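can u pls check wat happens w/ iron/sulfur cluster
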Amino acid sequence: MENNSITFLNNSAKECNLCPRNCKIDRFGKKTGICGVNTLRYCAANLHYGEEPTISGNNGSGTVFFSGCSLKCLFCQNYPNSQYCYGKDISIDELSKIFLKLQKKNAHNINLVTPTHLSFLIIPAIINAKKLGLNIPIVYNTSGYENLFILKKIIKYINIFLYDMKYSDNRLAAKYSGVVDYVENNRRSFEFILKSKKNRFNKDGIMQEGIIVRHLVLPNYIGNTLEVLKYLSPFKEQIYISLMFQYFPTYKAGNYPKINRKITRAERSKVLKYFNALKFPQGWVQEL
Ligand code: SF4
């Protein structure tokens, strides 16, 4: 079963379709696709206390930040790593050891940040680490630009999804993240995850399985946020939602006047009014 999954991922990486970009390049070769990295490259691995409380808990989330990204968000707050691909190359075995080290530090989980484009190397590291005693939940912390075909193969290795829902409008996705098909891919995979994972917690309230949907509110695009909330509303009993107002202009956002500022109080109020009217029962709302 496990070898089948690795073979499947290796085949997918040979003519890469690991994300919906479908670059069809050989990820074992020198040429990179739009995500910019073929090697198992990471920029940091540590205990992270700033995730949602049910993920970070008291001990912290064992976070591994990977380099490269299949999205090209002009406002990316992690752009040196995601867009310039800064980081350190390691082997699959070394990544397994990093997971085990984080577990030894009492991390509540292993939190894979931007894993999609490197899934063909990360999943084997998870399999190895499990053989060596890794037994804490695996968190897939993703931009939400997922190829359902791949997700169906790897979902058995993932316990929790921290799942971005950035856009409800592909025109915005095209303008600010360089993809024309975000919404349909994002929603299709989301609905599959919902069917596959049920929210489950340990006695200390730390999530063991489930899905948290994250949405970052963009300035001047409150309509985008309201449409995301409207779409999520029928699923509100099944998800935890994390509504984020932390946006600040960085990377190339300064070249785009509409996103070249923070969220205003009036924008936040408008979002919260709608959010409260929809009565989302569980989740977190960030302060400005
Ligand atoms: S993972 Fe990278 S190379 Fe593969 S399809 Fe996506 S952007 Fe292209």
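The two ends are 47 Å apart (CA to CA).
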